[in-house]
Write a structure and sequence with these properties.
With about 170 residues, this protein is mainly α. The protein contains 6 helices and no strands. Helix 1 runs antiparallel to helix 4, helix 2 runs antiparallel to helix 5 and helix 3 runs antiparallel to helix 4. The two termini are about 30 Å apart.
Length: about 170
């Protein structure tokens, strides 16, 4: 599978996870986890290369900047209590901005990239993306014990939805 088909396939998963998150806050954690992995690998195996293409120099940084905006929305939503009546608004904001970004990539950036990269290179990048995605989504880092978190913060612990991967990187 080439990188563009792999990215579009993961976009479909992200849209589905967003829809599930709207009615089930527990799915929000999985939605964010997929977003973090997606953005990290998309930047590494797609946008870093696309930025080197002369007539794509504007589109690549713009898309990566949108990733950073999504990451800010994630950070805002992560600290919000899941049982708060306004939590669905946080999910909706993240989902709407993410969906807009995915639609823009599919309509504008991916066709341009398909015309600029060779089919062989697209296939190589697709294999790398899928392998990295599989490995990263399989990572289950142990959570900080609640008593340690409580002592450190002096408040009720908040579950981090990025599973320690870091936002936009593999810290």
């Amino acid at each position: 599978m080439d990188i563009i088909d792999a990215l579009v396939g993961h976009h479909q998963e992200l849209r589905q996870l967003y829809r599930e998150s709207e009615n089930n806050p527990d799915r929000f954690v999985e939605f964010v986890r997929h977003l973090v992995v997606h953005h990290t690998m998309e930047e590494k195996y797609f946008y870093d290369l696309l930025q080197k293409v002369a007539d794509a120099r504007h589109d690549s940084p713009e898309a990566v900047n949108e990733h950073h905006i999504i990451e800010l929305i994630i950070k805002d939503a992560e600290g919000f209590p899941r049982d708060h009546g306004d939590f669905p608004i946080k999910v909706e904001g993240l989902g709407e901005y993410t969906t807009h970004h995915l639609d823009e990539e599919e309509a504008e950036i991916f066709p341009m990239a398909r015309a600029r990269f060779s089919p062989e290179d697209l296939m190589t990048l697709g294999k790398l993306f899928l392998e990295a995605k599989r490995k990263l989504l399989a990572i289950q880092l142990p959570e900080v014990p609640a008593q340690v978190d409580h002592r450190a913060t002096g408040s009720k612990p908040v579950q981090a939805s990025s599973h320690g991967l870091g936002i936009g990187s593999l810290k």
